[in-house]
Amino acid sequence: MPKEENHTIWIEKYRPSKLADIVGQDEIVERLSSYVKSGNLPHLLFTGSAGVGKTTAAITLAREFFKDSWQMNFRELNASDERGIDVVRNQIKQFARTTPLGEAQFKILFLDEADALTTDAQAALRRTMESYAQTCRFILSCNYSSKIIDPIQSRCAIYRFKPLGPEAVKEEICRIASREGLRVTDDAMDAIVYIAQGDMRKAINALQGAAIICSTIDEKMVYAITSTARPDEIEELLKLSLGGDFDSAESLLANLLHERGIAPNELINQCYRAIVKFEMIKGLKVELIDHLGETDFRLSEGANSDIQMEALIARFVLSSQKCR
Question: Do 147 and 27 reside in the same domain of the chain?
Fold first, then answer.
C-alpha cells in the first residue's frame, strides 16, 4: 500500500466511485442511473439523515455524466460555511453562468447542507436555478426538506434517502475489512451496526478506530473506541431505575458518564432506543419518553449535565413507583 494511503480517512478512501457501488439505496441508484443513460438531468433535492449516501450519490452521478472532465464541470459548496445571500449572488451565480467545458451540455453544482441557507438566500437561489437552467443543474442536499422553501422544492426531483439497513452496513464493513486485512467478529459487527444507526460514516469511523488498535476487532473494542455504552448496560440502568433502586442506578450512571466518558446526549439516545423496545405498561413508556425529551431539551439549553442526568434517573424511579 502506498505510504500516503496509510493515513487516508477511510470514509474518503472507500467512497464509492460508481453509482452501482452505493449500498442500501438500490431504488435511488436505479433512478439516478436512468438519468445518465438518457443524458439529461433535472434539478435534484437529496434529503435524509447523515451518512446515508447523499454526497456520494451527487459525486458519483457527476463522475458518470462527465467522465474525465467531471472535476471541471462539477463544484461542491457547503451552505453551512457561508449561508447568506452573498454566496448565492457571487459564488453560485458565477459558476452557474459560465459555459460547460469539454463535450458537457451542462455543469452540476452540488450545494450540501442547503437547509442551512437563510430564507433570503434560498429565494435568490430559486431565481438563479431558473435563469441558468440551460447551463447548470443544481443538486441540493439537506437533512430536513421542511427547511427548504416550496419554490425550490417544486423545481427539483426529490429523493429521500432512508437510513441504511443492517445488511447494507455489514456488506460495506466486510468489504473494507477484507481490503484492509482485518478480522471482525460477529459480535463486533453487530456492535458496529448498533452504533451506526444507519449512518455509514459512523460505521466506517468505528472500524478504522478499532483497526488502529488491533487487526482482530471484537465487541468490547468497538464500544470502547466509540465511547458507547453496551446495550446490556443500558438495559441494566433502566431495570434498576424502574425497580426503584435509585442508588444502584445512580452508581451505574456515574460510571458510564465519568469512568467511561460517554456523552449525556448519547446516553439519552441509547435509553430512548432501549425504552421503545422494552416491554412495559404503555402509560409508563409514554412518561419515560417524555422525561427523555425534557432532559434532552434542558441539556440543549445549557443546563448542568450531571444534575439533569441524575434528575432523569430520579424521574424514572418516581414514574415506575406511580405506575405500580
Answer: yes
Range of the domain at 51: 3-160
Asked whether the CA dihedral 8, 12, 18, 24 is positive or negative, the reply is: positive
Helix axes 200-213, 186-196, angle to 10 degrees: 140
CATH of residue 257: 1.20.272.10
Global pTM reads 0.85
47 and 179 together in one domain: no
The cell numbers describing 302, all together, are 445549557
Q: First-to-last CA distance in the chain?
A: 62
**Neighbouring-strand partners of residue 112:** 78
| Residue whose C-alpha is closest to residue 107's, from 156, 142, 71 | 71
State the Cα–Cα distance between residues 159 and 157, nearest whole angstrom.
7
Residue 15: alpha-carbon gap to chain centroid: 15
Q: Look at the block and give the residue holding cell 435509553.
A: 271
Q: Which residues pair with 184 in a beta bridge?
A: 217
Tens digits of residue pLDDT in 114-153: 888 888 888 888 988 888 888 899 999 999 999 999 999 9
Beta strand 43-47 with 156-160: parallel, antiparallel or unpaired? parallel
- pLDDT bracket for residue 310 (50, 70, 90): very high
What is the 3 state secondary structure string of 194-209?
HHHCCCHHHHHHHHHH
Q: What are phi and psi of 85, to 5 degrees?
A: -70, -25
Tracing cell 404503555 back to the chain, one arrives at 282
